[in-house]
UniProtKB/TrEMBL annotation:
It comes from the Eukaryota. This is AB hydrolase-1 domain-containing protein. GO terms for molecular function: serine hydrolase activity. Residues 56-277 form the AB hydrolase-1 domain. It holds the Pfam family Abhydrolase_6. Gene3D superfamilies: alpha/beta hydrolase (3.40.50.1820). InterPro entries: AB_hydrolase_1, AB_hydrolase_fold.
């Protein structure tokens, strides 16, 4: 596999849930480069496109990958202004083996892998775009590595779990009840049996947080986030009630909340032009 060679022209170099995935297929691998990088004992698959001075890492949702979750962003985010990295977290997509598991610290593990991947690629400062589960890991990464994270954008994410959330998650546990259109990309990636079992394990993985005080996933991290933060929320999101982005906005100092009236959980795939412009403008400020 071709490996993208970074040069000194970059100023920042050192010496989940249900998704509509068809829009992601617009990404053409010839527009960038892909490789695997050894990070924290595993080989992480990543894709890189663009040549801008501002490095951006895309963090996918539950069991998602760079291409299934971020095709329109890999294809269309401004390549002159940004260097965009999409990756598959450990156990996701092409970052297997190992198989995906869900210990109590799996969000923290993804956050550490994300930061260490960017460091291993030579970036000393970068922004994070996190969707759904990837947004949760982004929150943790921004809190724990404030000197590395330049800006943060999250959508479809939450810092705690409620009984209402568990009802929503259990309603989608059985993937055989999903439409074929929604299942197909994930079954193509994992195989039908592995996908069904791993998705059920994901539901169990997030359910464990209900046992924590206030159902916290990363509530304690929010006051520690110091970088400029944009929280985007689709007002028709069926998986993430609006009290979640409102809580993030209240507890992340100086954060900005942008509501998309017609947006659902996959707003960045459904309305890619609007979303990409919103993100580009925020990152360029």
């Amino acid at each position: 596999m071709a490996r993208f060679v970074l040069t000194g022209r970059f100023l920042n170099l050192r010496p989940d849930t249900i998704r509509v995935l068809t829009a992601a297929r617009t990404y053409c691998s010839s527009s960038g480069a892909s490789a695997r990088q050894r990070v924290n004992g595993v080989d992480l698959f990543y894709e890189q496109t663009g040549r801008g001075q501002h490095a951006v890492l895309l963090l996918p949702g539950a069991l998602g990958s760079s291409r299934t979750d971020f095709g329109p962003q890999l294809k269309s985010l401004n390549k002159e202004r940004f260097t965009v990295i999409g990756w598959d977290p450990r156990g996701h997509g092409r970052s297997r083996p190992p198989d995906r598991d869900f210990p109590a610290d799996f969000y923290e593990r993804d956050a550490a892998d994300a930061v260490d991947l960017m460091k291993s690629l030579g970036f000393c400062k970068f922004s994070l775009l996190g969707w759904s589960d990837g947004g949760i890991s982004s929150l943790i990464a921004a809190a724990r590595s404030p000197d590395l994270v330049h800006k943060l954008v999250v959508w479809g994410s939450n810092a705690f779990i409620t009984q209402q959330d568990l009802v929503l998650y259990n309603a989608v546990r059985d993937v055989s009840k999903w439409s074929a259109r929604m299942r197909q990309p994930m079954e193509d990636m994992y195989g039908a049996e592995v996908f069904a079992g791993t998705w059920a394990a994901w539901v169990d993985g997030v359910t464990q947080f209900i046992k924590r005080p206030e159902g916290s996933i990363c509530m304690e991290c929010l006051p520690l986030i110091t970088c400029p933060t944009l929280i985007v929320h689709g007002e028709k999101d069926p998986m993430v009630p609006i009290f979640h982005p409102q809580y993030l906005h209240k507890h992340i100092k100086g954060s900005r909340l942008h509501l998309m009236p017609e947006g659902k959980h996959n707003l960045h795939l459904r309305f890619p032009e609007e979303f990409n412009k919103l993100v580009e403008d925020f990152l360029d400020e």
